[in-house]
Amino acid sequence: MSLSFDPNGTIDGPTLADLLNPMEFKTVLLVTRGLQNCQVAEFLGTTELVIENVLTDVYDRTGCWNSGELVRRYFREVASGLLELGRLQRQLAELEARAAQNLHPRPSGLSTATDHVA
Hints:
The protein has helices spanning 16-19, 22-32, 37-44, 48-62, 67-79, 85-103, and strands spanning 4-5, 11-12. It is mainly alpha-helical. It has a single domain (1-83), classed as Winged helix-like DNA-binding domain superfamily/Winged helix DNA-binding domain (Arc Repressor Mutant, subunit A), CATH 1.10.10.10. It has a two-stranded antiparallel sheet. Residues 105-118 have low confidence and may be disordered.
């Protein structure tokens, strides 16, 4: 399920933004900026082992063998216009908001104090 590039420049398949969840995408963004796993872990407030597991999942999902391939794929997608950084930041914020709603959904049938304000 990897993105393919043919010699004519046609790009086919899902992008990194399509394939990755917010934690994975944040990890990729930090890796593309040259941070080591321990630095990524510190930045995201987790452990290096968690980051190693996240990256293993990212490699499996994207078909990349290592961080070098992942970084190349990221910049190739950016250069081709598939990944627009501003759009990615908005998508990431939307995904995080949705994830937060899924973690703390408002039970149906319950109202908040503002629902009754006239």
